[in-house]
Write a structure and sequence with these properties.
Number of helices: 2
Mean pLDDT: 75
Order of helices and strands: EHEH
Largest sheet: 2 strands, parallel
Number of strands: 2
Strand content: 15-25%
Length: 63
C-alpha cells in the first residue's frame, strides 16, 4: 500500500535479514547485536530515504 514507507527490520537472526533475497530500496535490515549509535544511524538513513520518496507539500502524488 505504501511502497515509499521506510522500513528498518531488527532481528536476532541475521539469516532472516537476507533470507528473502534483495529487499526493496526503502527497506533495511539490522542484525542483533548492534550498538545504539548504529541503530540511530540506520533510523536516520531510513527517515532520509522516506523523505526523498515522499512528495513535497503541494506536489501531486503519483501512486
Amino acid at each position: 500500500m505504501r511502497p515509499a514507507l521506510p522500513v528498518l527490520l531488527a532481528t536476532g537472526s541475521n539469516e532472516d535479514v537476507v533470507a528473502d533475497g534483495p529487499a526493496p530500496p526503502t527497506m533495511d535490515g539490522l542484525g542483533k547485536p548492534y550498538r545504539k549509535a548504529e541503530l540511530a544511524d540506520r533510523i536516520r538513513a531510513a527517515l532520509d530515504r522516506g523523505a526523498k520518496a515522499m512528495p513535497t507539500p503541494g506536489e501531486p502524488h503519483h501512486g
